[in-house]
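A further point concerns the way the authors explain their paired sequence and structure data. Since the whole study asks how a given chain folds, the encoding of that fold should be made plain. A single example would do more here than another paragraph of explanation. An entry of this sort, consisting of the sequence and the corresponding backbone structure tokens, reads as follows:

_____
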Amino acid sequence: MRQEAARRLVPMTETRWLSPEEREAWLALVSIMFTLPGSIESQLQTEADLSLAEYLVLAMLSEATDRRRRMSELATVTNTSQSRLSRIVARLERDGLVVRTGDDKDKRVVLAEITDRGLEKVREVAPGHVEHVRRTVFDRLTPEQVRQLALIGRVVDDTAGPGVMGVAASGM
């Protein structure tokens, strides 16, 4: 009896099913979401003993003007949670690739800074990574498709939340 009354209070709306074109696009996107990260992760693990998340942290730090970023900002630009980022940075610290420091101006802020060794690692890894990304993604697309992909990424990223798309990520 209660369930029946609750159903009457909540207006029922019709499901907006995907059109055949939308379904095809969605399944293509799902395929990319599941296969591309594994391919990139595998390349980085094999050639550099780095995860994609670790590489992104190093790349984002290497692109910062002073080679460091606030941990909160770094979490945003690498699309990861604060707690996951903390674990990633701890691993990179153990390998001497990153150090954490306090901010002289604001003692509550923690900064991650790439070390010279970390910068060298990025310089060593980036060419193979970029070649893999080029081969698996960009060599298959026309210049117009690349522009469309960037636009689609920005639009979807705006809906999903802040991330790399909101930050200039030139050398990834």
